[in-house]
Specification:
There is one protein chain. The protein has two domains: about 40 residues, no CATH class; about 40 residues. The protein has two helices and two strands. It has a two-stranded antiparallel sheet with strand order 1-2. A hairpin with a 5-residue loop joins strand 1 and strand 2. The N and C termini lie far apart (about 65 Å).
């Protein structure tokens, strides 16, 4: 459902209790929501336990080794099944 109005009213309460009503366009309100989302995301990323450089190196090497072994296994399996099917047909 779309609104027929192209602005929003934002209530701002100042530290000393003053209340202001601000008329803002929807594009400004949308941009403000995006900025708040990015700030919250940045705050959450500070809580992430990031791996050390040594752990990253070890895991990268491990992934490369497992990928090579898997591709070799699948290649040999493919070659074996191809020969088996060629001998049957």
């Amino acid at each position: 459902m779309t609104s027929r109005y192209r602005f929003s009213i934002i209530v701002r309460i100042q530290p000393r209790g003053a209340v202001f009503l601000t008329k803002v366009s929807h594009s400004f309100a949308t941009m403000n929501r995006i900025i708040n989302y990015l700030r919250a995301t940045r705050g959450e990323l500070k809580h992430v336990s990031w791996p050390t450089q040594k752990q990253t190196t070890i895991f990268t090497i491990l992934v490369i080794i497992i990928s090579i072994l898997t591709s070799a296994y699948l290649g040999l399996l493919d070659a074996g099944l191809t020969r088996a099917l060629d001998s049957i047909l």
